[in-house]
Amino acid sequence: MLAGLILVTSRPGPEAPDSSIAATSENLTPQLQFGRLTFNVESPPPTDAPFSIDTVLHRLPGAIVFIGTGFPANDRMPDAATASSPDDVVFAVVLKGGARASQHGREEVIEQDHAVLMTTRDAGSHTSSRETQHLIVQIDRAVLAIKVPNLGAWLMRPLFLETQTLRLLMAHCQEAIDLDESAPTHLQHHVVADLCSLIAFLINGWENRSEASPPSSTRMLRLHAIKAAIEASLGNHDLSAETLAAAQKISPDYVRKLFREHGLSLSEYLLERRLAFAHGLLLNPLRADERIGKIADEAGFNDLSYFNRTFRRRYATSPSDLRRSAT
């Protein structure tokens, strides 16, 4: 067992499905694999204090969710971006203890119940102690920037999260962690979209605290019910605030408000979910011979040109090119 404080340095590494710790055969230096980064763990001379960690990490399409405690670390990010480095943002929340973050020419002390937004492609560091407990969400920067247009202004600005807000974020992260690897791709995209929308809401809500408040648990349950109904009927061309409201016995305006509270309109959410569903169908080898028009229709698009245009804008490739790249 390792003992004492450890120093963690990072370098680009291969993709890994989960976190793992192993010692190399040559120098017995433990390594922690975190997504595309490999952390070398250097231990000082042994002390009487044992070293232990309690971490959970789960990767989803476009996101990594990490909850950990008992991991004293000095994580130094790469000095320069590499071609293989993901252009992501890291939303790091201190659940217990404290941490110190440095990036973009700023250094901040991150206290308990506070969060900081950092990037993966810029040099920086994040230092924590043995008592620090973190909740970390790593997500695609471009996707979050759609919901937070002034995202750059929020980098390295500590945000206080109220108890109710933290519980909501923890619930969403636990939902992501509980997803089995065999879960349908469209469901994984759905959970990531929820996480991204919630983080955007937290940031935008901080900017307009007099106008925004975290959604109550009742509203969140209602929103989850509506989203479940959407997932079950993405192919319905008539899906709208009116049809969803009728099924939930609420008003269409209330449906639209629930989505606006998460920084995304209902129409934007429907488009995102339909595109993600179509994306999964196009990569399914069992559907390789089906017409793209049929897949678009099954995902709820009744206009093929509109589907092709929005798909290319969302994924930077055409549906036909995506299918060819998967073969």
Automatic annotation (TrEMBL):
MF annotations from Gene Ontology: DNA-binding transcription factor activity; sequence-specific DNA binding
Gene3D superfamilies hit by this protein: Homeodomain-like
Entries under PROSITE patterns matching the protein: HTH_ARAC_FAMILY_1 (PS00041), HTH_ARAC_FAMILY_2 (PS01124)
Record-linked SUPFAM superfamilies: Homeodomain-like
InterPro entries: AraC-bd_2 (IPR035418), AraC_XylS_family_regulators (IPR050204), Homeodomain-like_sf (IPR009057), HTH_AraC (IPR018060), HTH_AraC-typ_CS (IPR018062), Tscrpt_reg_AraC-type_HTH (IPR020449)
Domain HTH araC/xylS-type: 224-325
Natural source organism: Tardiphaga robiniae
Designated name of the protein: HTH araC/xylS-type domain-containing protein
Pfam families assigned: AraC_binding_2 (PF14525), HTH_18 (PF12833)
Keyword line: DNA-binding, Transcription, Transcription regulation
N-terminal signal peptide: none
